[in-house]
Amino acid sequence: MPMSSEAVVDDVTPREVTKPYVQVSAVSKSYDAGANAVPVLQDVTLNIAAGEFVSVVGPSGCGKSTLLKCIAGLQPVTAGRIMVKDQHVVSPPDNMAIVFQRDVLLDWRTVLDNVLLIAELRGLRRKDYEDRAVALLKSYGLEKFVHRYPWELSGGMRQRAAICRALLVDPELLLMDEPFGALDAMTRDDLNVELERLWHATRKTLLFITHGIDEAVYLADRVVVMARNPGRIAEIVDIDLPRPRALAVRQTAEFGKYTTHIRQLFASLGVVGSE
Ligand code: ADP
After folding, report:
1. 259 C-alpha vs ligand 1 centroid, how far in Å?
2. Number of neighbouring beta carbons within 10 Å of residue 167
């Protein structure tokens, strides 16, 4: 029996009809100009829906950070186009915040003043954000460190403070560039759990760069697997694991299927020891 047009419309899910929040279209990027320029990114196309959590995993030098910087408007693309919420990205969008691997906290400012820095930089009234800054620090277990200095904090606490700073102005898009890469394994696990909970509660659009396959799968709705020379997308893997996720999910066969698949993909691309 032929399907009626009504049935076809019923089959369309909201995600399919919603325009992507981030659109990376046929993007190539070289840092050097000239005929011999080596492309760092080649023909990268990626759409991220509003409220989606996407991880990007790949070996060192495949262009993960470059891709994030292009989306953040911190690096121009050489070819192609990036749109964030229907705006062509030519400079950092207002509705975005970034967390880097190094927390970039200023040692001479207290933790609270570091979190409030982002409001000051955006010309917002500090007073209007003080309560929110303290509440964020409290929610990250840093209430005793509000008036302390960054050098008094452990690595994990510093990264938590950096996340609070990024969240202060309630960005719709959160870009994270290997934010837990310099932490010990147990602290990293804690921050993974906290981030998954945060995302589940706020449904921010989240792009998370990592070279850790387990971390990428644990956190994401989709994992973008990149290859290098030139940097490109090798495959995008849908992660269909229930949320909210506990760390124990990493012991399940389903989880193992995803990580094994990605490891095999890297092996087939000649990349070994990615994690
Ligand atoms: P990843 O994050 O995957 O490790 P990067 O995006 O940092 O990869 O780097 C990809 C390639 O681009 C590397 O070969 C790196 O040396 C080069 N690169 C990165 N930043 C710059 C820059 N500012 N100028 C020139 N080359 C760069």
Report:
1. 25
2. 22
